[in-house]
Design brief:
The structure holds three protein chains of three kinds. Chain A is of the alpha+beta class. Chain A contains twelve helices and twelve strands. The chains are: A alpha+beta, B alpha+beta, C alpha/beta.
Chain lengths: ~400, ~375, ~250
Amino acid sequence: MKVPVSYSFRNLWTRRLTTILTAAGMALVVFVFASILMLAEGLQQTLVDTGSWDNVVLIRKGSQSEVQSGIERLQASVLETQPEVAVGEGGRPVLAKEVVVLISLAKRGTDKPSNVIIRGVNEQSLAMRPQVRLLEGRMPRRGSAEILAGESVARRFAGAGIGETLRFGTRDWTVVGIFDAGSTGFSSEIWGDADQLMQTFRRQAFSSVIFKLSDPSAFDAFKARVESDPRLTVEAKRETRFYADQSEMMAKFLRILGLSLTIIFSLGAVIGAMITMYAAVANRTAEIGTLRALGFQRRSILAAFLLESLLLGLIGGAAGLFFASFLQLLTISTLNFQTFSELAFSFSLTFGIVWQALAFSLVMGFVGGVLPALRASRMQIVDALRTG
Amino acid sequence: MRILKLFFRNAFRHKLRTGLTILGITIAILAFGMLRTMVNAWYAGVEASSANRLVIRNAISLVFPLPLAYKDKIRQVGGVTLVSWGNWFGGVYIEEKNFFPNFAVEPRSFLALYPEYLISDLQRSSFLSDRRGAVAGKKVADKFGWKVGDTVTLKGTIFPGNWEFTIRGIYRGKDRSVDETQFFFHWDYLDETMKKTTPRRAGQAGYYIIGISNPNLAGEVSAAIDATFKNSLAETLTETEKAFQMSFVSMTEAILIAIQLVSIVIIVIIMAVVANTMAMTARERIGEYAVFKTLGFGGWFIAGLIFGESLFISLLGTAIGIGLTFPVAAAFADYLGTYFPIFFVERTTIFMDLAAGVLVGFVAALFPTWRAVRIRIADGLRRIG
Amino acid sequence: MTEPTTPCDEHGPASVLENQPVIVEVRNVNKSYLRGSHIIPVLRDIRFDIREGEFLALMGPSGSGKSTLLNLIAGIDKVDSGSIVIGGVDITALDETQLAHWRATHVGFIFQFYNLIPVLTAFENVELPLQLTGLSRAERREHVEMALRVVNLSHRMDHYPAQLSGGEQQRVAIARAVVTDPTILVADEPTGDLDRASAREIMSLMCRLNRESGKTIIMVTHDPKAAEAAQVIRHLDKGYLNHAHP
């Protein structure tokens, strides 16, 4: 492009108010766009991290989540003897029979209740989840009414902090430890002894069976056999897949809502850019005529104006991204529609999102600027000079 | 009328610019109205609640049931007129995305408690006498083309197996705030089946719904019921139907807040766009404003010109946006029918649209007016030609 | 026959035109405009030559077509019929891209309202035509500095047009016009927006360019004082060209 780049830059600077207003509109759009992508990414990360490729989760066939599922003791015992189950210390199978229920707890500071997952675990549970580590306090004693709270639950729910007591099932349960589960969904859970919890809730059946594969590639064979076994009514999934599926509906909802909003907003911002660029072209008609007279080709004029509106988009995009990056300090907690329980996750900014947001802002700049730029390039020299 | 004509002519001096601005406002108002309607839809359950109904659930969470045996003790509490019970069934019709709410209910008491579900007497008695009968709302029946007499199979998720029902009735809502996407069948059918397959799950109700004689008794009755079952195996939590519905809404509060914030953002974006347009327009006409001043017109007159034009453009766009909101909302309601069973544009939304339009037009004119009114005549005249 | 003296003569003698080669040949040029459904003829069958080193003034009443003729010679408008050959090149036969390319190296423009780019400094404005050549940054700098020296504005090269007076802006415009050493300089009412003193300055500058550097200048003006500087004056009236004098 022969017209100097500084021409485009400085014209944006000269009309500062207009440039700021237009870029601000685009920045807001990019902010919303980036925040949606970051939210979906954060949700994905939380649920994908929540799981190992080597672990298998079994729930009752037809159930959509552990809460809805029930696996009878007999069936659980059958599963325990399967050859694919890894054998751990002391020759014991690395397998946990867990019970998962929801309890309604009030959030700290408000009275608003939310459903929190309580998971009844045994020793193997912790071994199979390397992402989970004890942060404060100690492990509950076997056979006692002591519980562990996930870091997110302890922080946000009344009675779930270390040393505090929760009352449910006519018993008092003391929180003796807090565990850190990174960004995984386990942070939003409370863990206790499976037998104690089953007694309290008068449950005879487990909710799910989780075990570690001795050979990670043996999954498909295992799944095929177990799902056609007449003694069992279960469904098997790799743990990573299990948790990804749990968020599918939520992620899809967020994405659709978010993207439709973004498209609508971007229309507004693009219209703003178009108005600005048309005005710029109208005001600089004499300049355009002069440049053409001096010998600059039509395409150079087109490029110069297009560059100006692309720059507008880029400025808006960079500003929007900058502010969006602060969202990473926030944590969102909401109800996961599929599991009907509380899930906390945060915004996650990746390089992929940065590129997407910038590309989107460039597209907005392009769409907003292309028609005015074409108008600028198509002017007849004598008409343009006459207007000046 | 002449002044409107003046604003119209002035505004359309720059057809393309004004046209684009109006288009932007239309889109923004449309989006704003749709988002507000979506938020209202979220609260639909709360709005449809009756002050005469209370919901009783297990104090631990909804996931835990209550024994059927409780019904007698509940009936004896002062102020209770009707006792009904039910379970959220959560059955899947062919595939998960065909979602609609389905319940096992005690039919006689349920229909008595919900007079807003209108059903013909014939269909009612037909439903009551068929253990495997079911009643579906008009919306969901239309969606899947169900007629009275059809067989509908649901795949159980909480209660496993394939469950067959015969449609015995289709209900309509008394007014448009009533959810017409529900599907309910006999609780006894569920209980019978559980007795045969998993006996330990029989005799359990997911929740109780009771009618009270007077809304003012709600607090008393709730306290009385919860006290009755305190320290028993299944402690209860009794609350008004409204509070019960609200608890669901508050669980997804974060999303709601986000949507409300976003609807404000769109208005801010369009404000920037219109402000930009007015700033440009006013800048171009500085010379004219100077001429007006020489002729003796004061700052107020000029302010009136600019504000008038800005509001004219903004309200024109708002009017078109409001006009389009209805057909778009109707289309949305069709498409998202089962996720948002109640989806219609409320009057308050229209008022908010108008308010937003006025706000945008007003704010956009502020800075250009300030600049124009301050200009010295000589400076302004210099800018002509 | 003695040559009449013009204000330019103080810069040296004019070239003897008969000895100079013809650099612009205008043959049978016609141009009309469409207004609504009416065809308004602006130039009728124009035919004349311009010699190298000539200082030509085109004069005539408003609407006579003089600016149109200038635009056609400068290559920023297209004839309806006829031909214009400049330096051996028939510009009426060139397409837009070729014409733009030709203008960049063969024509220098001087406008009534200077037409400087407001967001570029004086230096950058003069450098603009050089962006279309293949010169390196250092080479461009040399040419620009030289052009600015010619118009006596080296000390103001980093100023923006808004910071310069009318006369200074026109001088920058002239520097821009000569920086590529074009074949012809075209000026449309160059003194139209200037006060008496600045106008005299500008005319003096143009005289120098014509007499000392031998530049061919074609100027449209209705200012009789400006016309005095020219060697040849042609009048246009209602689209017809009258004979030249002296």
